[in-house]
Structure formats: C-alpha cells, structure tokens
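Researcher: Next entry in the queue.
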Amino acid sequence: MGSSAKKKKGKKKDFQKPKLKVGKARAKPANFTDTSFRSKAIVLNQQSITATAPSTQTRFSHHVSLLGSRTDSQRRDSLSYLTTAITTRPTNAPLQQPVSLLLPKLVPLTLDQSNGVRTQLLKLLRALPAGDVAEHMDKILLWLQAGLTHLGADIRGSTLEMLMWAIECASDALVSCAGGWVKTLKSLVVMQGWPMESRAAAWSSSKISFGKPGSWKAMATSLSTMEAFIRAGLDEALEQDVQPTAWGWPLTNTDQHLTSRRSNPFAYLNLFKPPGGDEETQMYEDRENRQRIFACKFRGPIERGLEAAKQEGGEIGRAAAGVQKAIKDGMKDFNEFS
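Model: Structure for this entry, 338 residues:
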C-alpha cells in the first residue's frame, strides 16, 4: 500500500503549480545550459581565412572547371561569369585562357539538355574573337552536325542559332574544312525531312518536327540558316580567295607560282590520312568544287523540297524563296560540262 500511495503522490506533483516566493528566482530546469559567457574571437576548425582574394585568372580557371558540373544552374552561372569576364577585359588584352583550351570545354555543351545553358553558351561564343575561332572550326563543326540531327527538338533549334553564329564568324573556314560542306548540307537536308532520292515513293517521308505547335517558325528559321550557309559556300561575293594581280609583261601567271596564304594548302590531298574516304569528309576549299558537288548531290533534292515548302505560304514560303534565290545566284556561272 505504501508503494501505491507514493506513486499517486508523484503523479500529483507533476500537475501541481510551484509556489514562488517574493525575491527568489525561479528554479532552473535540469537541461539548462549557461550562455552567459562572452568571447572576443570565434575559432572555426578546418577553415582558412586569408586577407588576399583569389586572382581573376584563378577565378576564371575555376569557372572553366565547373563547366562539367552535374548541376545545370552551376553550368549556366559559370558560362555567365566567363562571358562577363571576356567582354569586360581591357581593350586589346588577351583572353584569360586561349581559345584552344576553352573550346574543348564549351562545344560539348551544344547538346546540353538545359535550354538556359545553351542560350548562355551562344552568348559566350559570340564574345570570342572571330579570328581565333576560325582556326578550330573543324572541332566546332563536329558538335554542330551532331546537334542538327539530334532527337531533341529544342537542341536542334539551338544548334541552328549556333550554326548561324559560325557562318557570321568564319564562313570561309566553315565551308572549306573537312566535312564542312557536304556533311553540313546533308544534315540540313535531313533535318528538313527531305529525301535524297528522286523516287516518288521516297517522297512520303515525314516533315520536319520541332516538337511544338508553332514549329512553322522553327522550320522558317532552318530554311533561313540553309540560305545563309549556301550563300557562304557558293556566293562569289563572299569568296575570299586572293584575286590575281595585274602583273606586267614579262611576268605572266605569277600568282600561280607564289606561296599559298593558307596554313595547309595541300590538305585536300589527304597525304597524312588513310587512303580512300568518302565525299562527306573531304575538304572543298575552292568555290568551283563546292558548286560541282552541290549540283551533283544536293541541288535536285533541295529544289524539290523548296517547291513543296513554298506551297505552305507565309513565312515558310518566303524563307524557301530566299533559299531558291541563293542557289540561283551561287550557281549562275556554273558549267556542269567544264
């Protein structure tokens, strides 16, 4: 009985309000922690606080390394920092890193799944010096061609904008590098859904699809990009070859015996590559050779596709008419029997 009375008394004690006496402090709980101490310094273990901030070059290299991050927001922010650092550098100052080191980190982002990353990548590419980019156009072109035939509609649309940047930046290097003319044209034709064969049965292939209800705008953009690319390869006004100098007698045909201004004038001979190879990987540095391969493989399929596109009318029809005019201007002096 004594034990039971003791338990009841203990339970009642939990619900009894303690009586406070005047001038006496309230009793402190059992888990009370005294925080009344003062400290003049806070010591953090395993941290280094230095007075000197990292240099601009160090921060630039750090953000370049973050381009391979798994977080798309981190990749986008790093691209934004690099763009700001390049555009705000002093006039005539060199880049923080050479373009040859930046491009291997940048061009794989052409196929990035994040639209924000691809948009920021295009801004960064536009900030790079055009002369330095032209020397590495063959490496950039591999990723552009992969993006043109990608399954993702958004990636194909972003790649068209990057291809237009490459045309504006270094059109001559783009169409004359290995695979730059034939393979890019083939990618653009396949992107439109146009068959390369002339058979009627093959014409039942599906049209281009950009995955959105307003895909007609994307199709018009792709046709405009095709027009710019064809003009870059076939337009005589854009041909950047050295014009013959009017040498007086007895100097005749002197330009044909001078040293070429190209860095690799005999690259088309494939002296250091395995024998064989197809037309897609060949270099067509001369406008006449580009006209010949265009007339042989692409003129028929593209013109048939343009006739079908003009029937759509509207912006697509106007873009198709622009491509037709580019072909007419570029092939007006071509003689298929020469």
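Model: The mean pLDDT is 81.
Researcher: Noted, moving on.
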